[in-house]
Amino acid sequence: MVGTTAAPGQQTDRELVERVAHGDRAAVRLLFMRHHARVYRFVARQTGSDMMADDIANEVFLELWRQAPAFEGRSEVSTWLLGIARFKALSVLRRKKEAAIDDDAAAAIPDTADTPEVALMKDDKAVALRRMVNALPEEHRTVIDLAYYHAKSVGEIGEILSIPVATVKTRMFYARKKLGEALQAAGFERGWP
C-alpha cells in the first residue's frame, strides 16, 4: 500500500499528516511532492480539464492543511486525499453544469468530432480503451479509474466513494462487461482483462 511504509529515515504519510496537524508547513510540502501527481491525474480524468485539475489538486492540499487535525487514520493518506479530490471535482462539475450554455446555443455548435469508428481506427488499444472508459456512466468510470489507474482495492474504493463494498463489486462487474463488449465490437481480439 502506498504511504504505509517509508524508506529508512523517511517519515510515513501518517506521520507527516500528524505533523501537518501541528502546523508544520514542511510536512505539507512533502505530502504534496509525494501525492500531487496522483491527485492531479485522478482529477484530470474526472473533469477532463488540465486547468481545472491543477486548481482542484491545489485545493486538495489546502484542505489537507485544514483537515489534518481531524484525520483519524482509518484509511491510507492517499485514499483520504483522493476522496477529498473526488468531492471537490464533483462540486466543480456540478457548478459547471449549472452555468452551462442553454440547449439552443449548444445545438448551434457544429460537431467536428470523429465518428467512433474513425476514432478507434486512429488510436491504439490503450487509447481506445481509455476512450471507452470515459464513455462509461460516471459511477462505473470512477470505479474503473480508481481500481486500474490508481491501484485502489475494492475496500478503498468503497471508502473513497462512500458506498458499500458490494456496490463497488457490482459496478466493477457491469463496467468490465460493458468494456469487454465495446472492445469486442471494435474488433480487438481480447476484451477487458
Number of strands: 0
| Biggest β-sheet strands, sense, barrel | none
Query: Total domains, how many?
Result: 2
Q: What assembly state would you assign to the polypeptide chains in this entry?
A: single chain
Strand content: under 5%
Please write the CATH class name of the largest domain: Mainly Alpha
Q: How would you name the CATH homologous superfamily of the largest domain?
A: RNA polymerase sigma factor, region 2, helix turn helix motif
The rough form would be described as globular
Q: Unreliable runs, pLDDT <50, ≥5 residues?
A: none
CATH topology of the largest domain: Rna Polymerase Sigma Factor, Chain: A
Output the structural class: mainly alpha
Describe this structure in words.
It contains ten helices and no strands. It has 193 residues and is an all-alpha fold. The mean pLDDT is 83. Helix content is 71%, strand content 0%. It has two domains: 1-100, Rna Polymerase Sigma Factor, Chain: A (Orthogonal Bundle), CATH 1.10.1740; 111-185, Winged helix-like DNA-binding domain superfamily/Winged helix DNA-binding domain (Arc Repressor Mutant, subunit A). The chain is globular. The longest helix is centred in the first third of the chain and has 23 residues, at 25-47. It starts with 12 loop residues before the first helix and ends in an 8-residue tail after the last helix.
Topology:
Blueprint: H1 13-21, H2 25-47, H3 50-67, H4 77-98, H5 103-108, H6 116-122, H7 125-135, H8 138-149, H9 154-161, H10 165-185
Helix pairs in contact: 1-2, 2-3, 2-4, 3-4, 4-9, 7-10, 8-10, 9-10
